[in-house]
Write a structure and sequence with these properties.
This protein is mainly α. The protein is built from three helices and no strands. The radius of gyration is 23 Å and the shape is rod-shaped. This is FlgN protein.
């Protein structure tokens, strides 16, 4: 069945409970896309981190389970990628911290990596 840009099938307006679930899934998918595009992009990632689940959603409609499952898997992949990026940044920072600091006019300007 074809879906709209928001991932839902075309047709009549959904029931209020289902509409709330669709809005939440749309929002989470948009935040995931923004986080993936931003990778280290400050405000967008902070907004995603500040998200809290609505209290009045009720049970997930059965026809949205696959979409929610795909979204959860994509979020887990994004989390793994972000954790890897954090580890890499920490390692690079540790490398930089290991470089002796130049001080005074007689200090070497270059680091000899070969010698």
């Amino acid at each position: 069945m074809p879906e709209t840009a928001a991932g839902r099938p075309p047709g009549p307006e959904p029931a209020p409970e289902r509409a709330r679930w669709l809005a939440v899934l749309d929002e989470l998918e948009a935040q995931l896309a923004a986080a993936s595009a931003a990778r280290g992009g400050g405000a967008r990632l902070q907004a995603a981190a500040a998200w809290t689940a609505p209290k009045d959603l009720g049970p997930l409609p059965e026809d949205l389970v696959d979409r929610a499952t795909r979204l959860a898997a994509a979020q887990q992949e994004a989390i793994a990628a972000l954790r890897s990026a954090v580890r890499s940044a920490r390692q690079q920072s540790a490398y930089l911290d290991a470089v002796p600091k130049a001080s005074g006019p007689g200090a070497a300007v270059y680091l000899d990596l070969n010698g």
